[in-house]
Amino acid sequence: MSSNPGATMSLPAEMGKPLEESLDHLVSNSAASEGGGKDILAPSEVRADAVHSHGEKSKKWIKKFFPSEDTLDKLFNMEHMGNYVIDRVTGRKIFETMPIYVRVGMHLLFVSGCNYMSYSSVEKLLENQSIKQGKIYDQTGEGVKEHIQSFIDTYELPLDELLVKDLDQYPTFNSFFSRRLVPTARPITSPNDPSIIISPADSRLTVFPTVDQAKTIWIKGKQFTLPNLLTGEDDTETRFKQIQEDTNAALAICRLAPQDYHRFHSPVDGVVGDIKDIHAVNPQAINEDLNVFTLNKRSVMLIHANLGAGRESVPIAFVAIGAMLVGSIGWSKKPGDKIVKGEELGWFQYGGSTTITVFPSASGLVFDDDLVANSKKGMETLVRVGMEIGKVKGAAV
């Protein structure tokens, strides 16, 4: 029985075989770095630099011969099947590149009007290919170091950040992918102020003050609810009751690209509660009526957060979601452990991944203005572990 209730049709043989062979070829003949590369400036940013270098007087003259900045960026985006993000440090728009296999998977799963996921056989096919790809990244022996070096070169990763700098010490590609960094690589904003909330991951961040805003701007499907996200609509689950019934809960969505540091950290001080594993819908992919991406696993950690005076034990939910090509989610902490802001919570293995942190309205969290503004425009913001993303304000109720 398919885990996707919307995937009820059988894929015609004349369609299924070529698709299977194409995906199998991509998996068998592509490395993690192929088809990707370091993020680059958006065409509008490049043109702005060119205009600036020729002086302000040339601006109107140049504009006569080129489309608008928005049009230029949209054309580039359509051609390359990529994604734009705002670099929070520089404030500039950049184009995110991605490996070819991830592009194909993203296209099948995310692009509006693509109906392949209505076929149960395609869901199973993607699942099988992801498992196959995961096995490749767990292989040991000859070629591992070369694979890692190629990945480093492609994305220009800074080796001085690595806790273990000797590449021979990584037996598999996945062991490098989930690499640790030196503690000074990701400084924590206001470590002694529990009211300052930080980014849990190096990622492309989107924030929403309420679930309703998220459903209006970000999640177009009808099936996204907090109970679905946190419990998989398990009616017997009560551990997340205080959070899932709060329609004014705030969401922080961190989307990790393959080149990102793939360990995630606690955005708050607190104590780890329970952890629940769910094999169900990835809410990042719900942009149709279909219940797509059900092959992905997510794991939900309850944290009793200390957010300052009067809010010493506010329940928040930290959701780790395995996305395209992710073989597993690992936790570094267990129920009952005390955690401090910025401390490691866990890791992802190879692929793009997502974390969603749910803050109930009782938290008093107010996200930073720039993050809210970008999110309202449908733009993600490039952030790093430890950056402030919001502050708890107002008196506790």
Automatic annotation (TrEMBL):
Keywords linked to the UniProt accession: Decarboxylase, Lyase
Keyword GTP-binding: no
Pfam families per record: PS_Dcarbxylase
GO molecular-function term, one example from the UniProt record: phosphatidylserine decarboxylase activity
Keyword Lyase: yes
UniProt signal peptide: none
One GO term of the biological process aspect: phospholipid biosynthetic process
Protein's recorded name: Phosphatidylserine decarboxylase
Lineage: Eukaryota, Fungi, Dikarya, Basidiomycota, Agaricomycotina
